[in-house]
Amino acid sequence: MKPTDTSDPEYFHKVVDCQFACPAHTPVPEYIRLIAHQRYTDAYMINWESNVFPGVLGRTCDRPCEPACRRGRVEEEPVAICRLKRVAADFKDDVKGLMPKAGQKNGKKIALIGGGPASLTVARDLAPLGYELHLFDAQSKGGGFMRSQIPSFRLPEEVLDEEVGYVLDMGVDAHFDTYVDSLQSILDKNYDAVFVGSGAPRGRDLPDLPGRGDADKNIHIGIDWLSSVAFEHTKKIGKRVIVLGGGNTAMDCCRTSRRLGGEEVKVIVRSPFEDMKASPWEKEDAIHEGIPIIDNHVPKEFVVEKGKLVGMRFDKVEAVYDDTGQRKLVSTGEEPVFVECDDVLIAIGQENAFPWIEKSTGVRFTSWGTPIINDDETFQSTRKEVFFGGDSAFGPSNIITAVAHGHKAAVSIDLYCQGKDLSQRPPPHVTLVSQKMGIHEWSYDSIPVDDKREAVPLVDLKEALKSKTLEVELGFDADMAFVQAERCLNCDAQTVFMEETCIECDACTDICPTSCISFVENGEEGDLRARLLVPATNEEQDLYVSDTLPTGKVMVKDEDVCLHCGLCAERCPTAAWDMQKFYYSMAKATPDLLVEAAE
Amino acid sequence: MSYIKPTFRHPRLPTNRLGYTVADYDGSISTLCAGCGHDSISAAIRNACFESAIPPHRIAKISGIGCSSKMPTYFLGKSHGFNSVHGRMPSVATGASLGNRNLTYIGVSGDGDTASIGMGQFVHLIRRNVNMTYIVANNGCYGLTKGQDSATADLGSVAKGGAVNPFDGIDLGSLAVLQGASFVARSFSGDKAQLEPLIRAAMAHKGFAFIDVVSPCVTFNNHNGSTKSYSETRDHLDAMPLDFVPMREEIRTQYDEGTTQNVTLHDGSVIHLHKADSSYKTDDRNGAMAAVQKAKDEGRILTGLLYLDPDTQDLNQNISLATRPLNELGKDELCPGSKVLDSINEGLR
């Protein structure tokens, strides 16, 4: 193999598994260390710079970082990254003074359609540069999906208000209760660019299922129902509730039902339990609240007696996979199953809909109903001054993805308004600094602790079910947070190898607790992977290969289960290994928001 | 400096015949200087015991005094151990071997502990052919007292302070061959591919097995002018690679004839010597001495298996000791009482 090019920031970026997996590339190990040092405000600001809504995400994020966490590969459970983020938000000081202000007006005017995470991120990134920002949303407050579809027992309203407020306070001209029904009318107002972050608001229905029309009074589209609960239009539901669907929205629907009078709430899903789209922890939370999840049942009909819904019939199926891994749900041939109910919540996904975007605008759509977008870097539509982001770009995803879209779209809008080429993206902000404090001393707690992951404490179940606003999770206290933060392996403390000084004494190979380092003859990657001290079978993880050393061998480090404990560097007599902190922040329209704020 | 080794290990560490991973043969974290050759030897011993699937509790580590003799703390944390008086490890090893002949004994010593203060004991240990593996971590200096020349420092080698050594060094390998050792090898701490099979063969050998290992002192003897630095040793290395195949395993690799010689040990294990020309004989004591001397004259460091007598008689056999270990014999067997004494005396009248 060729020597690894560590001057390409993407190499070390990939080593920090959590940060790499995060769509917004939040510098996770950095803020976790700050939490351990009780520097909650600094931890919060690092988060805020990267993901705009740390308090919201610390409670609701889909956490792609956690399945990626290296700790999950060397031990069982990943670091509790998401809930540590909440710790930073819970314990921070007043951060208002640290927030950047709107910049000197630059004469450019941008319209933002929708007030959700994507639009707010675009606003946050563009405001310090002096853009005039007009935000339109049909709801009476900002936050979009975060406000209407996440129950407040998971996300208290004041947390959302605070973080939406930080963005709006940067001089954003917000027009709430304003439904934009024509893109053309916006374009006619001579905006320099338009960002569409209107989400994917329409929940999918089962219009053709027998009985659908007759039972309409007791059948609700999950996502609309959640939003009407949030706005207190809906305050109760029948005793027996069926929730159709297996995603996180279904989980929110069933748990909310429990709080609005639902006593026998069942989730009924077509697919096998393992294939359900809901995150494992969301399923656990539902089961914990006494909600059975019945899988492999396909809705057949709504049963109506005397004009009233009395139950539903389901076909029992089993999943059959063909050679290509394609799943088919095949009826088992058994009698259809009848389940009694008073109400049904349909939470089987969402559809994109842009009835307000006229053909004449030149914005074109795919056959799936999503806008045709240049690529997932620029977010530019077929009408060059119109940009999309969040769920409106590629269909339903999650908050952190919407934030990431916002960052990229803001960069594009800024380039576009300056008349620059959108494909010439600014580079990420990267630093790489030695962490050496003494001959054998590092600036971070290098030796991993053995503590196990602990669950976040919850309020008493009885109390929780009595209220729909009482937050269920109590969050970690400072002591628990410290222990959980110390579980982080500091993967951003990179093992940097300098072959010029290596004397091939084998000290690093001998000391490495997880046998990551081998000195072997070079070869092709597959061959090399097989010849290491422990064969490197996890091909998602890179090999770090040095140039040829004096004996003709090369140093090969398998990044897979490196603990970043620094023992290789401590045992190296010539400092050919060094532990260097790698800081990576994805490119944003305002290059350094926090410095900007400090000045 | 870290004095704690993380408890996490690679989740896919291979296991040996006993189901142990190499981590089960680990010791405490080393307190030797970073990059010390001795740590590589520790790792080679650990790997050799793992590869040969010797149960850790059936091994005893014995050492004297010095950097080298601290080593046993850093490997085989679940084995027996005795850190003896300076240069007196051979006495302890001899006693232990007589007390329990069923353990695998690994003696670790240094150039000072063996070639200076311990020389008297060392030669007698060879003479008695105690069944053990004796490893000298040879760095040519007294690292623990800041790098003075040791008895094995080569003539003309320059110490870190600039002084040139005016004495010829003691060559422990030649001495062991001359004194009648039944297994003599030399290796280099930076060549685990050779050192590990040598240690495995030495442990399988029934009798005294000696391995002189050049092990650079990274703090006091790794500069230009030193003859035992990493770079100097590598430049002059004349290594004979080898493989060790224990008795229970079948020989899988095919070697070309003429480039490989096989030596079968007492227990049926086989040592494959590579790059050996047909005239090379491991059972030729005079030839071994000549080869070492010739290499020395030519400025080469000859490493590999120098001499082996697979059918030697060890101490327990030579003095016709009971076949069961002494520590397993009961009081009545060890001290049969006055009646038996009387009958012996009677028989002599």
Keywords:
A: 599 residues, alpha/beta, FAD/NAD(P)-binding domain, 24 strands, 30% helix, B: 349 residues, Rossmann fold, eight-stranded mixed sheet, three-stranded antiparallel sheet, 12 helices, 13 strands, 19% strand
Q: Explain this structure to me?
A:
- The complex is a heterodimer of chains A (599) and B (349).
- Chain A is α/β, with parallel strands linked by helices.
- Among the domains of chain A are: 99-200 and 352-417, FAD/NAD(P)-binding domain (3-Layer(bba) Sandwich), CATH 3.50.50; 203-349, FAD/NAD(P)-binding domain, CATH 3.50.50.
- Helix content of chain A is 30%, strand content 19%.
- In chain A, the strands form seven sheets. Chain A has a five-stranded parallel β-sheet with strand order 3-2-1-4-16, with helices on one face.
- In chain A, helix 5 (54-60) packs antiparallel against helix 8, helix 9 (117-126) packs parallel to helix 17 and helix 13 crosses helix 14.
- The two termini of chain A are 47 Å apart.
- Chain B is of the alpha/beta class and 349 residues long.
- Chain B has one domain: Thiamin diphosphate (ThDP)-binding fold, Pyr/PP domains (Rossmann fold, 3-Layer(aba) Sandwich).
- In chain B, 30% of the residues lie in helices and 19% in strands.
- In chain B, 48% of the residues are buried.
- The mean pLDDT of chain B is 92.
- The interface between A and B is large, with 37 and 35 residues.
- Chain A: Heterotetramer of 2 PreA and 2 PreT subunits.
- Chain A: Keywords: Flavoprotein, FMN, Iron, Iron-sulfur, Metal-binding, Oxidoreductase.
- Chain A: InterPro entries: 4Fe4S_Fe-S-bd, 4Fe4S_Fe_S_CS, DPD_II, FAD/NAD-bd_sf, FAD/NAD-binding_dom, Helical_ferredxn.
- Chain A: Residues 493-522, 552-582 form the 4Fe-4S ferredoxin-type domain.
- Chain A: This is dihydrouracil dehydrogenase (NAD(+)).
- Chain B: Keywords: Oxidoreductase.
